[in-house]
Design goal:
single chain, alpha+beta, 11 strands
Length: 257
């Protein structure tokens, strides 16, 4: 899918921050691209998955992803996604993260983002609209990253394993099984997993399943179906994992979307 013309136009606007609104339907995809400005991507509804060469970031409601300027990325859509983006000029983004990260969007910032979308692109920097944008920049500098991120390894042996588990999250093959196909020992692969992703193989697999579960929940798939397709022996085992990771059961999560 081609980016909206509005997103291209705001890149060169002589203002430190600009907001855009774009709506997407189920199964839409946004192709690889990069921006000269940093982008905060926030979905009011649905679940958005942002990909870079370094990993995958999943955005359920009340979350946003920060993508620094110049980072190539693409996005997958699950459900009806109403995307609201803030594009921040490089000189105004000095206090913002240098790497991609998912952040929680507090209610105040959510309302500020929705108001910013209505602001003229060439707003008066010294007027009320300019003050609104300054408050937004201040709020952005206080955001705390959350762990809704799946790091991807550079080692090609590991990459073949992770690509398989992203594509087939219910695959129950253990590291010994993957090692036989990779031509390396399970111990070597385990050490490389921690070195390249910061996670053990088991923790990485659980994170991959969690992020896929968030995408499937946005598509209103039954919890039992999700649990079985992710390779869990029972829905209760999946629900327990989900509660530990997200802080609520899948049912409560769905009600709070």
């Amino acid at each position: 899918m081609v980016l909206s013309p509005e997103i291209h136009r705001v890149q060169d606007i002589p203002r430190p921050i600009a907001a855009t609104a774009t709506d997407y339907g189920p199964d839409d995809e946004i192709d690889w691209h990069a921006h000269p400005r940093g982008q905060l991507i926030y979905g009011i509804t649905g679940v958005l998955t942002v990909h870079t060469e370094a990993g995958r970031w999943v955005l359920p409601p009340a979350r946003a992803v920060w993508v620094p300027a110049g980072i190539e990325h693409r996005s997958d859509i699950a459900g009806e996604v109403r995307m609201r983006s803030l594009f921040v000029a490089t000189e105004a983004a000095k206090n913002l993260p240098k790497d991609c990260c998912v952040v929680t969007v507090p209610p105040l910032l959510r309302e500020l983002i929705l108001e910013a979308v209505e602001v003229p692109k060439l707003y008066d920097i010294d007027g009320p609209d300019g003050r609104l944008m300054k408050v937004i920049l201040d709020r952005l500098s206080h955001l705390v990253p959350t762990p809704l991120y799946l790091p991807l390894p550079a080692d090609q042996r590991l990459r073949r394993i992770t690509d398989n588990l992203v594509r087939i999250p219910g695959n129950r093959t253990d590291l010994n099984g993957f090692a036989k196909k990779a031509g390396a020992s399970a111990r070597t692969l385990a050490r490389l997993f921690v070195k390249e992703t910061g996670l053990t193989f088991g923790a990485w697999r659980q994170q991959a399943r969690l992020l896929r579960a968030l995408e499937w929940l946005a598509e209103d798939r039954p919890v039992t179906s999700i649990a079985l397709d992710l390779g869990y022996e029972s829905p209760s085992a999946f629900i327990a994992m989900f509660r530990r990771a997200v802080g609520s059961t899948p049912g409560r999560y769905l009600k709070g979307r």
